[in-house]
Automatic annotation (TrEMBL):
Keywords: ATP-binding, Coenzyme A biosynthesis, Cytoplasm, Kinase, Metal-binding, Nucleotide-binding, Potassium, Transferase. This is Type III pantothenate kinase. Substrate binds at Y93, G100, A101, D102, R103, T179. It comes from Thiohalobacter thiocyanaticus. A monovalent cation. Ammonium or potassium. Homodimer.
Amino acid sequence: MILLIDAGNSRLKWACLQVKKLQPGGAVARSAAPTRDFASAWDALEAPEAVFVTSVAGEKFDKTLANWIKRKWKREPEFLATRAKGFGVTNAYREPERLGADRWLALIGAHDAWDGPVCIVDCGTAVTLDALRGDGSHEGGLIVPGLALMRDSLKERASGIDAISLNPEARTGLLATDTGNAIIAGSLYSLVALIERVVGDLSLEWKEPVQCLVTGGDAEQILPLLSVKAEHCPDLIFTGMAVIARQSGAAQPAARGREKDGHEMEYLSADPGQPAVARLVVSAHG
């Protein structure tokens, strides 16, 4: 089993890759005590063969996570970084490393799973939109505040509404009849309008339909309001991580055989065209 970890600004998410098949994991809210978060998430998990991480949580958090993994499972996690080109995708950024690793992985996942052009919408603390052509060319993207940031900024900066309690679960139509619901509906429709305009403009510019793929923690609030055809892809980043894990050889099952002396050997897969590495497997028989 390979553990895939996505450390975001507010949540810690994970999935597992079992014999090339992506399995759902879980998510916990990040707290001020990250080691408690790690224990809550993974104390009962079997020891993984490898750990791949994407993180926007900062250097201090990443170091704490790496040390916990090494103590818990004696594994060195691989932190995935953005590249100028790889896995069928070409990064549009002039400084490729400035594109967030989570966005890079979502691009890889979308290119692997979908044919044709797509617009990837990640609805998290910030909302990002990335345009990807069918040939894997990333054309660039947009970043705007997410739902919570929009609402919080209004409460902090607009006079007279700082004391209003917001209930994001409240049902609201197009128009609200109180200030709290007006803020909630306004933030939702702001993002909906942006997404629909970008997808429509891309389709016109590229002269072909552009598929909208929506991921992130707030995706389920946005999706029902969209009039453009959209797919919910909650595991898009993990799909991209799985592509990298498979191509690294980490996700390849080991082949077993017997040497002439009768010892059982486990042949660990290597990169295509490279020789396999053999490891002795010792078992006790009663």
